[in-house]
Design brief:
Shape: flat
Structural class: mainly alpha
Bound molecules: magnesium ion
Order of helices and strands: HHH
Distance between the termini: 29 Å
Helix content: over 70%
Number of helices: 3
């Protein structure tokens, strides 16, 4: 199932009405922190960590969707497109680098 703005806008409006903008920001921070912890568990090979990551990714996506609607869908979508284009450029440069026999650069994903 693909979650759309139409599916979520009314629900997120109700959430914002109950807990406000600051509450939404705090919840987003909390969910990002929980995902960081889950990813640490996965890297260490903890049993059940994949399920934990799945649930925390879902939480972060929900919060990111709320933030996108709150902060402006057009601006966020524009930033996403720009960042994806930038990532594509970096991938292309790295592929060329590796194909020419140079050592791989860091994979920190930025
Ligand atoms: Mg969570």
């Amino acid at each position: 199932m693909k979650v759309t703005d139409d599916d979520t806008r009314e629900l997120f409006d109700r959430v914002r009405e109950l807990w406000g903008r600051a509450g939404m920001f705090g919840q987003a921070q909390e969910e990002c922190g929980e995902l960081i912890v889950a990813l640490s568990h996965l890297r260490r090979g903890r049993v059940g960590a994949e399920d934990e990551v799945i649930l925390e990714v879902a939480d972060v996506l929900i919060m990111a969707t709320q933030l996108r609607q709150q902060m402006g869908t057009e601006d966020i979508d524009h930033a996403v497109k720009w960042k994806l284009r930038r990532l594509g450029d970096r991938v292309g440069r790295e592929e060329i680098r590796r194909a020419s026999g140079l050592p791989p650069r860091g994979d920190d994903g930025r």
